[in-house]
Design brief:
This protein is mainly α. About 55% of the residues lie in helices and about 10% in strands.
Length: about 190
Amino acid sequence: MTVSAGQLRVQRAQELAEKHPFSAEILGFYIHVARFQDEMRHGLNKTLPHVLPDLKRELSANETLQLASTFESFLCLAEAHGPKKTAELARDMRLLGEASRAELLSSSWAPPSSSDAGNILASAFLQPYAEFLRSRAKPEKSLHTHAVCVFCNRKPSFGVMRQMGDGAARSLVCSFCLGEWEFRRLV
């Protein structure tokens, strides 16, 4: 049986929560988020099978409608399992109504989105959709000089050094679609 990336994220969060008790609250919340994202990722083929794998465009009306209907259940999860401030924010966002939530999803989709708390929750919800679209796209040849993701035009969240020959190669990992691209070590 294969283990999905979402299941690996949950396992890693559980290990870290046991190892570092001070982080148990936020990691416990993340475990719920990662499970939700994994289930959402698996259901996307059924709900939106014919979308274009392009993150540099706006969400279509159909995509926004489909995603907004699921966003409320994500906000319920955040309200039930998130830290106090996150739970309060999720409750307030849920009470705004579907039109406001759809507008928030659209604004969070377009880079660069602001980093206020509402957009962070919306981005966490949209992340599996971005990853899904990236997985369906034909990979572009990396040019090693992009400081932003070549697929969705977002900033990287971290860099990775990988053994390569007698040295190491550096890659950057996108903060939104989780795409990885090579980046020169010295710029």
